What does this fold into?
Amino acid sequence: MGTTDDAADWGRLDLAWAGIREHVLDLDGRPVRVLRVEADGGGTEPQLLVHGLGGAASNWIDVMGGLRRYGPVVALDLPGFGHTPLASASAVGVAGHAEVVLAAADALGWDRFALHGNSMGGLVATLIAAAHPERVARLVLVSPALPPSCPLAMIPPPRATVVGVLPMALPARRTRQLMRLIFTEPEGVRPSLLQVMAADSRPRDQQEAEDHKQALIQSTRSIARHWVDPRHLYRSIDAVQAPTLLLGGTADALVPARVLRKVLARRSDWAGAVLDEHRHALMLDDPTEFLARVELWRRTTDAAVA
It folds into this structure.
């Protein structure tokens, strides 16, 4: 695995990020930027973290240190997001993102791993877990972009989703928009996290700016196509074999609490909670709560995974 010039320990930016380093994975000539931290605590189960629409690997940075007790942790930038270049238009749909996630696991040498996904990343993770049960040992979904349970209905993205997502295509507004969608108290977010999030949303050059724009547009269209007829997605939900934890919030403007409750009712064997007053990315808004929920759930699923 090749490394970027900035492979120094990110603990220099914030002590909470000690041990995290930035690398570039080579996926048969396609570079994919990742953040990686090695296991610390005896755990051996790898964990792969997938961000949502308009996000980046750094969306997971505050929980990577806590997750490393279970095994090595990698968060990746999907094509066209963060600092992963856009290889082709076909790489930025939901199916293309799933292929990249699996290719990243292959490049890391991970045959079986825990898969975490937020928002669009949760949709991608669900499809991967359904199609490749032999590879996904555990599944963690944080406000996944799943549709309402209406198999025959034409379901466009909710107005709140469109209003929330489209302004993010404008670089000057992207970070402010994400702040309002993610954090219960935006004014309390520490400067180091703001700095990293801004750096990942700010294009490094004109080509990256165009990649961000195209990735947002094409990924949004792909999600909408999956939502028009959600029967395939619900078949995928039904097909997931891995122990699954689903987390969301009642103050989420993008994925309504009722959608998550319907999924939990459909899959009564899944663990989950819709938390009062939490927003779209629990691992960013309240990393302590996220890690506590994951720890409790993992203890109850260890026997099933072993």
Notes: The chain has a mean pLDDT of 88.
